[in-house]
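for the recovery benchmark. tokens below, seq after
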């Protein structure tokens, strides 16, 4: 497989990640032991910086898992008394997320919704300053249709896992059938967000790859 980032460099950067409470370290261990894919702390730090820079207050997250990233997002909006809405399709993970959010004392800062993002987003009443997509990679294009109108002008859309552990550059004949479809859809998604007239997008090879898209202030 193709490495997105040199493993030694990755380890070094991770070693410089900010200190975090014991319950976050416990969540990191739980995720590793239970094969739950969560953002690494260096990606959490990038999201925090982007949120502070953009002064985001209202955040929508697609793909809560156990609420590890959600807690980072909630900390980042704390100075502006912001709010996170997060959606998780998996019942058991949503239960674990609710417990972790309670443990972090963030119940009043986070609204956790259970279900399929595409079914839920049309019923949300708010528009958002910052949207973080971290769910099924093959569905990013589908999510985008629903999410783009919900992103405020000047807001940021951050899509995670867009380099799919490097599979985006692996020739199709070397991928398994299911991977082929997901990777093809991801490549289409990246082409779309990098050429969309309403967005300015940068792809960052950190973690599993992030696409950071700024919604321009004037729609074209
Ligand atoms: C990579 S994990 C999210 C990790 C989390 N954001 C973190 O970094 O701590 C992806 C999650 O998205 C959820 N998911 C997948 N498809 C979804 C959908 N259509 N709607 C809502 N959640 C979805 C999965 O159940 C999984 O828990």
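predicted aa per position
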């Amino acid at each position: 497989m193709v490495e997105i980032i040199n493993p030694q460099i990755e380890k070094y950067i991770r070693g410089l990640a900010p200190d975090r409470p014991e319950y976050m370290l416990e969540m990191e261990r739980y995720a590793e032991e239970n094969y739950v894919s969560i953002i690494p702390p260096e990606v959490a730090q990038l999201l925090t910086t982007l949120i502070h820079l953009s002064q985001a207050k209202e955040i929508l997250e697609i793909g809560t898992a156990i609420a590890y990233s959600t807690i980072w997002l909630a900390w980042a909006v704390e100075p502006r008394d912001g709010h996170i809405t997060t959606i998780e399709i998996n019942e058991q993970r949503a239960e674990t997320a609710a417990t972790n959010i309670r443990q972090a004392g963030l119940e009043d800062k986070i609204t956790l919704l259970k279900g399929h993002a595409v079914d839920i987003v049309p019923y949300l009443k708010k528009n958002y300053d910052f949207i973080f997509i971290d769910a099924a990679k093959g569905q990013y294009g589908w999510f985008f249709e629903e999410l783009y109108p919900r992103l405020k002008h000047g807001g940021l859309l951050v899509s995670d896992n867009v380099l799919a552990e490097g599979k985006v550059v692996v020739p199709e004949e070397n991928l398994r059938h299911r991977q082929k479809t997901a990777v093809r859809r991801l490549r289409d998604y990246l082409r779309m967000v990098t050429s969309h007239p309403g967005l300015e997008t940068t792809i960052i090879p950190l973690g599993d790859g992030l696409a950071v898209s700024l919604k321009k202030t004037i729609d074209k």
